[in-house]
Write a structure and sequence with these properties.
Number of helices: 8
Largest sheet: 5 strands, parallel
Strand content: 15-25%
Organism: Sphaerisporangium rufum
Shape: elongated
Protein name: Transcriptional regulatory protein CutR
Keywords: DNA-binding, Phosphoprotein
GO molecular function: phosphorelay response regulator activity; transcription cis-regulatory region binding
Radius of gyration: 18 Å
Helix content: 40-55%
Oligomer: single chain
GO biological process, one term: regulation of DNA-templated transcription
């Protein structure tokens, strides 16, 4: 899942990003509204965690612009105010969800995951395919009742393959969903991650390489 965190309190923004990365999400960060509009102009995010009170371009204006552009990204609006009127106002701007500060981090994670499921055709919270069971909420993967320990990137790659439901996923799409904007597009990290993932999943092999196209499960 690709997430953009837009928050001008840098310590908070970086803490949110670090926590979401630990949940196997690819996270970019910007500290003002202008940066948010720039990034969303060329990157398709599943979820945008958007503070309201932002410098350069107010969070409300960012939300209005994204909605007007018919973005497929789901918007989780953050604010220091939890009053009902503020929540209503934020939702009426087009935000998909609203969370007041301070918040419990695991609630933020749960809301981001729920919105991520809504950014694509509906799928069950727990994914099952080819004898593999993946639970994003618990970060648990099993195959034939055998628990498989994966790194964050291996987990993210497997989740994207399972969400594709048998369709081919290109290397570019995997880089976009499992890594952040700092990744070198010419890196071989996807191939290396796929090798270790296949080894951990064991036999019979379930991940197929489609030459010149990508991978499918």
């Amino acid at each position: 899942m690709r997430v953009l965190v837009v928050e001008d309190e840098r310590v908070l923004a970086d803490a949110i990003a670090t926590g979401l990365r630990r949940e196997a999400m690819a996270v970019d960060v910007t500290y003002d509204g202008a940066g948010a509009l720039e990034r969303t102009s060329y990157i398709d995010y599943d979820v945008i965690v958007l503070d309201r009170d932002l410098p350069k371009v107010h969070g409300d204006d960012v939300c209005r612009k994204l909605v007007a552009d018919r973005t497929a990204s789901r918007i989780l609006m953050l604010t220091a105010s939890g009053e009902v009127d503020d929540k209503v106002e934020g939702l009426e701007l087009g935000a998909d969800d609203y969370l007041a500060k301070p918040f419990a981090f695991m609630e933020l994670v749960a809301r981001v995951r729920a919105l991520g499921r809504r950014s694509a055709p509906a799928l069950p919270p727990v994914l099952e395919r080819a004898g593999i069971r993946l639970d994003p909420g618990k970060r648990l993967v099993t195959r034939e009742d055998r628990e498989i320990a994966l790194t964050k990137k291996e987990f993210a790659v497997l989740e994207e393959l399972m969400r594709a439901e048998g369709a081919v996923v290109s290397q570019e799409d995997l880089l976009d969903k499992a890594w952040d904007e700092n990744i070198d597009p010419f890196t071989n990290v996807v191939r290396v991650t796929m090798m270790t993932l296949r080894k951990k999943l064991g036999e019979p092999a379930v991940i197929e390489t489609v030459p010149g196209v990508g991978y499918k499960l």
